[in-house]
Amino acid sequence: MKMKKDLRGQTSNFLQNNLVPIMFIAICIVCYPLAGFSPSYLINEIVTRMGRNIFLILSLLIPIMAGMGLNFGMTLGAMAGQIALIFVTDWQIWGIPGVVLAMLLSIPLSALMGLMCGKLMNMVKGREMILGYMMNYFVGGLYQLVVLYMMGPIIPIKHASIRLPRGYGLRTTVNLTNLRQCLDNQFAIRVQGVKIPVLTFIIIGALCLFILWFRRTKLGQDMRAVGQDMEVARAAGIKVERTRIIAIIMSTVFAGFGQIIYLQNIGNFPTCTAHTQIGMFCIAALLVGGASVEKASIGNVFLGVILFHTMFIMAPRAGAAITGNAMIGEYFRVFVSYGVITLALIMYETKKRRARSQGGALLALAQKEGGVQS
Amino acid sequence: MDKSERLQQTRLSQLVNTFGLPRLIIAGFLLFLFIVAPIAGADLPTQITNVFNRFSWNAVLVLAMVPMVHSGCGLNFGIPLGILAGLLGATLSIEMGFTGALSFVMAILISTPFALLFGGGYGLLLNRIKGGEMMVATYVGFSSVSFMCIMWLMIPYKNPSIVMAYTGVGLRNVFSLENFYANVLSDFLKIDLNPIGINLVIPTGSLLFFALLAFGMWAFLHTKTGTAMTAVGSNPTFAKAAGINVDRIRMLSVILSTWLGAVGILIYQQGFGFVQLYTAPFYMAMPAVAAILIGGASVNKASVGNVIVGTILFQGLVTMTPTVMNALIHIDISEVVRIIVSNGMIVYALTRKTEGGK
């Protein structure tokens, strides 16, 4: 009898914790026949998108470990990656050397932005997410200032293919034709019409291994301690502020790499707006995979990418099939991405509040008992 | 002599402290623009007219920030909810066939129940997540805007002047208010100095309407409920101990904010002359938030004065920078300046340590 009850408790717990992934699996199952894509096309698309996005999403894991929530400031790294790519394009260094050089160039930029973001986040503990989110827009403005006005006269950009003929500013699109899919095509294999970008997956695998290893190092343990309870960690002699800044710097640097991998797959990018939606889609994908604001694993990343992008590919076609208007599916997928983030944030905040009031109740109880004893 | 000098110095630093350095810089920059404008060849009265106009469009949206900041709910990044209520009011009023000034009155009346409904639900939600309002508010705004994108296509509107031209299904992205309520307020008692050779037009009606709402807000904040709201915002524990129903007051402030957002967008439309649907409300929260912060508000403190100063400074910056910059250096960096200033201001306000008891 008790076991049965236990089992039921477990199932409801499981349902509660995995509500979002289950919902998404349901959406995908409903959409699949309506969209009418062939399985090989669908799998091909999903594999491509996995190679494109997973690295970016993995960059979100470290700040979550350090208790800093979803790093909306990952866009800063994406901007650093884009600036590095602009330089590499200007110097006409192509192929894999170009990608590697862009990654190396992005490191100091990302680290600097991460440092700035981390310092500010230390000033607003508990409100890191809204700060990171606003930093996107602020640094986005600075990025536009650099790209549209300073590149040319102040920062030397020579090549006419990216610079505007008026002498300053870049063209609206930066073309990466000669970098296009250079990582993805290296060692790529085709299995029944599905192209598997082996090198990209090897890079992703390396980052996964790094994250797994990093969790066990001293610094990784410190981060988890800080994430659990800042005051306890401080009492244990951990430099809380420094650890948090390092977490954000690592995340920003990885986001920069991720953006370079993402853009080499696509092959060009709109100069001023390529980064704007990245944070939103990556965070939505991670949450769809069953992660929450305070807990996320590599498994969540993979599951999230697959589910989110399956929905993303199918929604417009399925929407058109149901309502006869493709725009509805288009808006639907945007709505779902925002909705998932909203839901996750609400769940996180209610949980946090409940935990706090429980803590208060426990403390009151302890004090009461103490009072009785004395 | 020495003493008075020192006194002056402390006064200056006091001014910097109370007014805030970024605000002083922005005010100084705006003053500089006003001085430079005639030298650069821009017509000053036209510029002042522009600032007046933009002020009258945006001021009510900025005013909508005040109640929620007062009750400690933080900056209302969820203002798109109110805007959606306003858009529903606008489209339904036109759909029902009202025209002219009546369509404006009806738009406000129709949007009110929606604003109460949305604000009520939003308030309930925010009461469950005290302390994390701003982030959730942002995303509640985003998801409701994208949800309404679907609705604008699905609700069976029929009026040919607002539905898509050839399919007849779904509303247009943008439609003109020419025959409806464009300029109904700003043409009321308009002061036009063009006949005597000065390009100065003052939209008296809009300014009066704002003054009415602003006075109402000021008066409300001095009633018993308004004082209770301030108490909840500055110290919820104390407010609770004083017997104030914290959740109810917060709910009231959210509903008030949402309703003001709805009225605010209608006033914006009557000045602008067009209704923008679909993704347009996405980024309407940022300018309003930035404006009130530039006016001297912080995350948990705001007054009607902040609204007026902030809207003038922010809109002045937005309208003056492009003309003056264009005339001076022939490079239009106004858009980038606007982005950096407004978002930089929000980041600055967030990092300041003015946390009330949460």
Quick gist of this model?
The complex is a heterodimer of chains A (374) and B (358). By secondary structure, chain A is mainly alpha-helical.
Structure, described:
The complex is a heterodimer of chains A (374) and B (358). Chain A is mainly alpha-helical. Chain A contains 15 helices and four strands. Chain A has a single domain (2-373), classed as ABC transporter involved in vitamin B12 uptake, BtuC, CATH 1.10.3470. The two termini of chain A are 43 Å apart. Helices cover 69% and strands 3% of the residues of chain B. In chain B, helix 2 (21-40) packs across helix 13 (304-329), helix 5 packs parallel to helix 7 and helix 12 (285-294) crosses helix 14 (334-351). Chain B is globular, with a radius of gyration of 21 Å. The N and C termini of chain B lie far apart (47 Å). In chain B, 48% of the residues are buried.
**Low-pLDDT segments, ≥5 res of chain A:** none
By secondary-structure content and strand pairing, the structural class of chain B works out as mainly alpha
- The overall average pLDDT of chain B, rounded, is 82
Indicate the CATH architecture of chain A: Orthogonal Bundle
Number of strands of chain B: 4
H/E series of chain A:
HHHHHHHEHEEHHHHEHHH
Strands of the largest sheet of chain A, in order across it? 1-4
Runs of chain B in which pLDDT lies below 50 for 5 or more consecutive residues are none
Q: Structural class, from secondary structure content of chain A?
A: mainly alpha
Indicate the proportion of strand residues of chain A: under 5%
Principal-axes geometry of chain B comes out as: globular
Kindly state the mean pLDDT of chain A as a whole number? 85
> Proportion of β residues of chain B?
under 5%
List keywords for this structure.
heterodimer; A: 374 residues; mainly alpha; ABC transporter involved in vitamin B12 uptake, BtuC; two-stranded antiparallel sheet; B: 358 residues; 69% helix; globular
